[in-house]
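Recap quiz, item 2
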Amino acid sequence: MAGLSGEPTAPLGKLWAILGVRLYRRFVLGSAVIYLGLFMVALQDISLGGNGVRFLTTDLGRMFHRTGTMTFEPIAQLTLPGITFLLSPLNLLMGAFIALLVGLNLGVTLLAFRNPGACRFNRSSGVLASLPALLAGSACCAPAVVLILGLQLSAAMVTVFQLLIPVSVILLLTTLKLILDRTEMSPQYL
Amino acid sequence: MKRSEKGGRSLAWRWRGLISGLVIGSALLAAQQIVKAANARPAESLPFAESAYVRADTPEAYAAAMMSGGPPPDGIPAIDEPRFVPAAQADLEGGDIVMGFAHNGEARAYPQRIMVWHEIVNDRVGGLNVAVTYCPLTATAQGFKRGDTTLGVSGRLLNSNMVMFDRETRSYFSQIPALGIQGDHIHRTLDEVNVIWTTWERWVAAYPETTVLSERTGHLRNYQRDPYGSYNPAGGYYTQAGTIFPLMHESGRHHEKTMVVGGRTSQASAYFVLEELAEAGVQATDSFLAVYDGVLDTGYIYVTGRDSPVVVPADEGKYRLEGALYSADELPLTPVVPVEGFYFAWHTFYPNSEFVSEGTTAPGVE
């Protein structure tokens, strides 16, 4: 309704239209922020434990050193009583990008749920696409996830863990495009 | 014409000057490099042990069983420029685990909570270049002479145990057998030193002048948190049954995470359950004798043979051998470098180890 003058057909136009509506904009941003927080926790860039208050930095060039297949070294650390934040710019950038995709997928899925004409695929695919994204954060530290699940890792599983981030991005982009293509953007559904 | 001749001569002189300058400069630089090279100490390559340890599998089989643990080489960053603080400034509780190494009157403590994030410290202790290494998955802390090269963490695992690489040839080494499994140094055995797994209160009592690895490692990590679990109090992965990565040899004789101390030579290997050794004081197998050190809560292993000498516990943590008293690490026998770690880790590399059957004094063989 608000912010819509016609019925957009191109995917980007549709996205823009959705983000023009406060409800969806808030939902997308809220989901993205929550996901980004979980991603940073999974990457251990946010972790419990810390003594006193300290702020440390290291060489900027270290931000490009890989710690995993697609995870990188921190260049700043903020320690507060009980919690520690590590700033790895590339992790943050990648986390924000995936988080935005997750948020958009969920936002469009919400629209599909509210849209009586949407097919079944539209209603569930955004959520399903977000599942590997939830695991993507664990790509750096497969053992930690395996510890929680009580599994034994095979070489194939390690490879899968290493590919979670790129696979998540591809899945999220694909489903976003598919849902947008199949979702009617009539103003009455927005 | 005259002007142009003058200009031509001046240009020619400039060129000659420039070329002469370049030639003299190059000669000076070359002379400097020659003097530098003549004065430089030849770099010491990675030192190796004279003989290999007994093993159940070939290095080629080990290389084939090696798998990625996730991080790329140096993705888990070794500490190459370690800093140390005096014992009084160490942020450690008495029960915290440290890895201790003493050499030539110099003692170091490497806190487990820092080592868990780096796994290797390339250090120089008492004039000796050593790599102090720690694999959290197998609880093995081992030291290796490194010459003038440094060791790094490859990110690959063999039998759930760290695979290291030397930065000179990028050969891969498996930590527990101290063995080259890929690259130029395949089949070669690293020269080991004894790194002791103990608590801070025990180490500082034994070595009050010790220095402690600082949290200023050159890397940023949350050193208050262990991603696998905890040792003080013990919990998480360190006490759970099961392992994360596949093993070449498995055994149900003890709980996987039982701490054992093992020893090996070119002929045989043996392990002793640390708790049982602590209770008995002295234990023997066909080829080895183990003695408990109550000061550091660790074990020392000596090569003996079937006619094992009679060693008996005496007062004040000493041991009596042929009428004389000795501390656990000073018995006049042939010592081996002991390796402490989880039982599953020792067994998977040394499945044919001699051991002491529970409740008996007779040695057994798996």
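The interface with chain B takes residues 44, 47-51, 56, 58, 65-69, 73-77, 79, 84, 86, 139-144, 146-147, 150, 152-155, 158-159, 161-162 of chain A (CB under 8 Å).
Confidence is low (pLDDT under 50) at residues 1-5 of chain A.
End of item.
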